[in-house]
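Input.
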Amino acid sequence: MTETNASLADLLRPVKHVLLDFDGPVCSVFAGCPAPDVAQSLQEGLEVLGWKMPEQGQVETDPLALLRLVAEHRPDLVSPADRRLELLETGAVQSGRPNPGGEAVLRACAESGRAVSIVSNNATAAIESYLAAHDLTRYVTRTVGRTPGDPASMKPSPRLLLEAMSGSEAQDFIFVGDATRDVEAGLAAGVGTIGYANKPGKRERLEAAGAFAVVDSMDFIASVLSAGA
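Output.
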């Protein structure tokens, strides 16, 4: 069921600080440089250091999932893997596709006096590079990417959200994300989550994971904020 203006307004009204996932709500990171290509480049760089996939012939097309695999099977390679992925992500965001609704939410938060933090499994350097290139830095109070060399910090762990909240009251925050891991991280951190269903099938998964509300448009969130929620 599509979230109504009234119920979303009730959810957003007490919020002082909006936490936003990056890849999805703000932009499509790998729109111009597909994630499988980034994963392949990461793997090729690691093979020079002696990395081999745990199972013969296995192919990992998600670079973040590949980073988790490295941490599990070759922890000695995690730091160089993370550094290489950070460079690849920073290159990828140069051709990332903006989500017009993402910028609209940033503007609406600023106009309504709400702070915004980006909380993402992507590298902080890549996120900040994108924000600067698109003149969005002024709308963002804080950027919290994965902890360098520590893939375990990534969502669904609540660690990044808790870092962004810095001990403030959880009721002052809402987290907007497009994946079940975002909802799971929000629940673990005690923060309400708005699911962004930007692809078929996501609405059901986000609702099942426990999202407080699910929308299919970031512009809808922006319009509710602008209407005085």
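The CA atoms of residues 79 and 204 lie 36 Å apart.
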